[in-house]
Design a protein that fits this description.
Helices cover 58% and strands 1% of the residues. By secondary structure, it is mainly α. The strands form 2 sheets. The chain has a two-stranded antiparallel sheet. A two-stranded antiparallel ribbon has the order 3-4. GO terms for molecular function: oligopeptide transmembrane transporter activity.
Length: 599
């Protein structure tokens, strides 16, 4: 891979210290700060994601400063044997820097207060069990890891035509378009309504046990989705099956060869260099899995009235996460993880309809633990590239701290921001609209409370969308057959159905503004500039992506503290995401909405 070959060093210095006081001090501060900021800004209309890259930029001067001012005196602590410790073992080194960033990455995993510590640790266990099949193979490269390596390397320092120059809108939902390969880029209103087009009164159909009241539901009639929402869900059905189909057809042999390689010793240069360090025994991850699973099981048994999820539902959710983690990790080229959230919601909605809390819990343990596993595998890949001793990577403390901070900040915001997440009661242009949480609420109503049978089944209006499951299964098969029939046409191999269809998983809450701007920027950099100015692209593309992400994070915090807290709003040309005041108005005749014309 050109990207890996140019950015990842083929050298290592095993003498560098890793678990230093500086690493723990800066790592703990970073994970708390990132978790706080991502939760805080995650409730805003355009969520600001403060990523690991921001920590990389900020902690480098701090680490060098600590290396200059901390005392170098060595000392011993009872219980640590003859080992000598020091607050300052020498110059701040690259491995400390990498570990601080990986430690802090737990704080950027989720920014909406929904990342619970148990499911995060569960995901850590899945990642550890699968790392041999995702981290060690040289051809399994992840663009986001290459961006981080390029920073560490000493060689590099809604509408059909909606556009924006606001980088937070370009990258907030889909990630940086500068790090997504061109083939992945090329492949790539939010409410329920009644039959009259008015907002569906969800509160009326929920009883005191947080389950559906069928009599009230029959009075209101069927729930209807917006056209945009319905199409998004329909397209979301296809990549679920397409992921399994694509991986079986295009990567099945690679997976088989990797299983053989773990026994025969077939390794690339980075894997060979990592052999000098002690590996993490699988039993460590097995203990994590068992411990987190037992805690989750205890919640399901002893708090069954609150969580509504039976013990067998937890086992089923864990099985789905295990099945999908490997194939989704393999196709994780473009930040777009196929909608396992949809399949977990769909399955639980069919098995146990009318229970929204059970559906959310099933999604948490099935989908979110898988997402966490993929995130941790990304961290493992970064550590693999940077030759970090594997046992030093076993940092579950950051995960627990991040999950706890997420929940604490979410509770604080809910108690202090009046009418947060309720756009109907918020002042005009208020940023506290919570698009991610609104989506989670609507999903819990669709899949959990009302149930897929009354939406996508015989009792609903959208049964035809189920045919897209078949489309997802056949799409990769057609591409595979065409590739075998016309091997000279290399472009056929770049048709990637899981990425092509899976990119819509962010939509909603992402809109056409986010997608259009992201696609244009990505094509310019990863096709035209890469093709016609390759030397510039190799040297500066990933650095520019990191700079934009880090600059956005720092300026977002600065602007909020200096201007937003004083009710000062900046109106810059090109930064607006919605250029039409009537963009959210209904187009059907006879529907009256405040502030909109009546057709």
């Amino acid at each position: 891979m050109e990207e890996v070959r140019f950015n990842v060093p083929n050298s290592d210095d095993p003498s560098l210290a890793v678990w230093t006081f500086r690493m723990w001090f800066l790592g703990l501060i970073s994970v708390v700060l990132l978790s706080f900021l991502n939760t805080f800004f995650g409730y805003r209309s355009q969520p600001l994601v403060v990523s690991m890259i921001s920590v990389q930029v900020a902690t480098l001067p701090l680490g060098k400063f600590m290396a200059k001012v901390l005392p170098t005196i060595k000392f011993r602590i009872n219980g640590f044997g003859d080992r000598h410790l020091s607050l300052n073992p020498g110059p701040f080194n690259i491995k400390e820097h990498v570990l601080i960033s990986i430690f802090a990455n737990a704080g950027s995993a989720f920014g909406n207060g929904t990342a619970y510590a148990i499911e995060q640790v569960l995901g850590y266990g899945w990642a550890g069990m699968l790392r041999k099949y995702v981290v060690d193979p040289g051809h399994m490269w992840w663009p986001s890891s290459v961006v981080q390596v390029s920073l560490f390397s000493p060689e590099n320092g809604s509408g059909m035509s909606g556009l924006t120059l606001d980088w937070s809108a370009v990258a907030s939902f889909l990630g940086s378009p500068l790090v997504t390969p061109f083939f992945a880029i090329a492949n790539v209103t939010l409410d329920l309504f009644n039959s009259q087009g008015h907002f569906y009164n969800v509160s009326a159909i929920v009883n005191h046990n947080l389950q559906i009241d069928l009599q009230e539901y029959e009075k209101q009639g069927r729930a209807n989705l917006s056209v945009f929402f319905a199409i998004t869900y329909g397209i979301g059905f296809a990549p679920i099956v397409a992921t399994l189909s694509h991986v079986a057809l295009f990567n099945g042999r690679e997976i088989y060869e990797q299983i053989k390689a773990t026994r025969t010793g077939k390794e690339d240069i980075h894997t060979r260099m990592m052999k000098k360090y002690k590996d993490i025994p699988n039993c460590w991850y097995q203990v994590l899995l068992v411990a987190s699973f037992v805690l989750a099981l205890a919640l399901c048994i002893f708090m069954k009235d609150q969580v509504q999820l039976p013990w067998w539902g937890l086992i089923f959710a864990a099985a789905l996460a295990l099945i999908f983690t490997l194939p989704i990790s393999i196709i994780n080229y473009g930040h777009h993880q196929s909608g396992l959230n949809i399949i977990t919601e769909y399955v639980m909605g069919v098995i146990s309809p009318g229970k929204p809390i059970a559906n959310v819990c099933f999604k948490t343990y099935g989908y979110m633990s898988m997402t966490q596993a993929v995130s941790f595998l990304n961290d493992f890949k970064l550590g693999h590239y940077m030759k970090i001793p594997p046992r030093s990577m076993f940092l579950t403390l950051g995960t627990i701290i991040a999950g706890t901070t997420n929940i604490a900040v979410a509770w604080w915001l809910l108690d202090t921001v009046e009418n947060i997440c309720n756009p109907k009661l918020l002042p005009r242009n208020s940023p506290w609209t919570c698009p991610n949480d609104e989506l989670l609420f609507d999903a819990s109503v669709i899949w959990g409370l009302i149930g897929p049978k009354r939406i996508f089944g015989t009792l609903g209006n959208y049964g035809a969308l189920n045919w897209l499951f078949l489309v997802g299964a056949l799409g990769p098969l057609i591409v595979w057959l065409l590739q075998r029939a016309f091997p000279a046409h290399k472009w056929i191999s770049y048709i990637h159905f899981p990425v092509l269809l899976g990119s819509t998983a962010s939509m909603p809450p992402a809109t056409t503004v986010n997608f259009n701007s992201w696609i244009i920027v990505g094509i310019i950099f990863n096709y035209f500039i890469r093709k016609y100015h390759n030397n510039w692209w190799k040297r500066y593309n990933y650095i520019l992506s990191a700079a934009l992400d880090a600059g956005l994070a720092f300026m977002g915090v600065l602007i909020y503290l200096s201007l937003t807290t004083h009710n000062i709003t900046l109106h810059w040309w090109g930064a607006s995401c919605d250029h039409c005041d009537l963009a959210t108005c209904p187009t059907a005749k006879g529907i009256l909405v405040d502030g909109c014309p009546l057709h």
